[in-house]
Design a protein that fits this description.
Elements lengths: L1 H12 L3 H10 L8 E9 L6 E9 L5 H16 L2 H4 L5 H12 L10 H11 L11 H15 L2
Antiparallel strand pairs: 1-2
Helix pairs in contact: 1-2, 5-7
Length: 151
């Protein structure tokens, strides 16, 4: 009975079940977060690749910056997971893809491939084998990482 009432309150007010039950027992109103996020990994079948998802539940009055910040946090969490890294053709493809994502703004815009490659090379001066001399190779590795991620 208590659980049914808690479920109804949770559904009606957008609370999770535990805070709804706490409200019934204590009278303390749960706080409502303006944004909730979760990441999930689903397998479509045995031997199939993982499908990663980021789910955000956002109140309409919340700023765009707060939504982008929460999205980026979920994205970094997923991209940092071991399961995702194991699918990359090479560790460098993974790092290039992550580098471009980190240098992409909230509108999905980033600098040119040439500028990104130059910035990459500056940050990898101490590792000559990680440097690029042709922006097409840099962009190829980024695209390869992008395709691998969404396989």
């Amino acid at each position: 009975m208590l659980r049914k009432v808690g479920d109804r309150l949770a559904h009606r007010y957008g609370w999770a079940q535990a805070p709804a039950l706490r409200f019934i027992l204590t009278g303390h109103t749960p706080t409502i977060d303006p944004i909730r996020g979760e990441t999930s990994r689903l397998r479509t079948g045995v031997g199939e690749p993982l499908l990663e998802e980021i789910t955000l539940v956002v109140k309409p009055w919340l700023s765009e910056e707060a939504v982008v910040k929460m999205y980026r946090e979920g994205q970094r969490r997923l991209l940092a997971s071991e399961n995702v890294r194991q699918r990359w053709k090479s560790p460098r493809n993974y790092r290039v893809f992550q580098f471009v994502i980190e240098h992409t703004d909230s509108d999905g815009q980033h600098q040119s491939a040439q500028k990104l490659m130059e910035l990459w090379n500056e940050q990898h001066e101490s590792v000559p084998e990680d440097q690029y001399h042709d922006r097409r190779n840099f962009w190829r590795d980024y695209k390869s990482g992008q395709v691998t991620l969404w396989m």
